[in-house]
Design brief:
265 residues, alpha/beta, Rossmann fold, 10 helices
Length: 265
């Protein structure tokens, strides 16, 4: 068995939670940060395409998947997410790394880069839903703030359909279902994470050089947020295949784009 075939599973204690993470591959370290209610499994199609050139670290954010809380659930702000990732990096390396963050994970990556730029040599953010940069942010805030209550009354699947409607990610919402294993994560995300994510505003002066990925879903919230970030920073966006999770649905093509960006460090 080669290093690329072997996966090491580990846990890390952080304030208020235990993070589950995996290490696979060989070469320079690449950290993948999932977004929303997604756990590390969202990267399952992508990781095998990267491990020949990179030591790939994936993890489940606190309250999601196998990363359990050790205290009562409470609102998770972006700084807490970035602190968790910083502690994870300290646990696995003492050198700067490459980071790919998707959706809400891209926002975590932006905060991490603002606070600890010395830990990142290459940063790729894919479709960060930067609502604060959009002209209709007040309307979007109000809509997102209803989701926790909808979880309570109608359940997380109904609330997730509403989230996707607001985000513009799914055209046929009446046919959308949440996999059973994801229901607890969806509930946690909509109750305790989404409000902070949609209120995050990056500080341009604090950010290092970065690449901004966009998919094919023009008009979707996250696509708009990524485009707005590019305009704010004066940075041209990079086209990725597929829509918001195109790195998973079109992994072969996405890996080529990501490897090219990582090679430009």
């Amino acid at each position: 068995m080669t290093a690329a075939d072997s996966t090491t599973e580990r846990v890390l204690e952080v304030p208020g939670a235990t993070l589950h993470y995996s290490v696979r591959g060989s070469g320079s370290l690449l950290l993948l940060i999932p977004g929303g209610a997604a756990d590390s499994m969202i990267f399952a199609p992508l990781v095998p395409l990267l491990v020949d050139d990179h030591t790939v670290v994936t993890f489940d954010p606190r309250g999601i998947g196998r990363s359990t809380l050790t205290s009562a659930p409470q609102q998770v702000d972006v700084s807490t997410q970035a602190d968790d990732v910083h502690r994870l990096l300290q646990a696995v390396t003492d050198e700067p790394v490459a980071v790919f963050g998707s959706s809400g994970g891209a926002i975590t990556a932006l905060e991490l880069a603002s606070r600890h730029p010395e830990w990142i040599h290459t940063l790729v953010v894919h479709e960060p839903p930067l609502v604060e940069l959009l002209p209709d942010r007040a309307e979007l805030h109000l809509a997102m703030d209803t989701l926790a209550g909808r979880c309570e009354v109608d359940g997380p699947e109904s609330a997730m359909r509403e989230f996707l409607r607001i985000s513009g990610q799914v055209a046929r919402l009446d046919e959308y279902t949440v996999p059973a294993r994801m229901l607890p994560a969806v509930d946690f995300f909509l109750r305790y994470m989404v409000s902070a994510i949609v209120r995050y505003r990056p500080e341009p002066a604090a950010l290092p050089e970065l690449a901004i990925g966009v998919g094919t879903g023009a008009g979707q919230l996250a696509h708009r947020g990524a485009t707005a970030l590019g305009e704010l920073l004066g940075t041209r966006t990079t086209a990725f295949p597929g829509e918001h999770v195109g790195f998973a649905t079109h992994a072969q093509l996405a890996a080529v784009v990501l490897q090219e960006l990582l090679g430009k460090r």
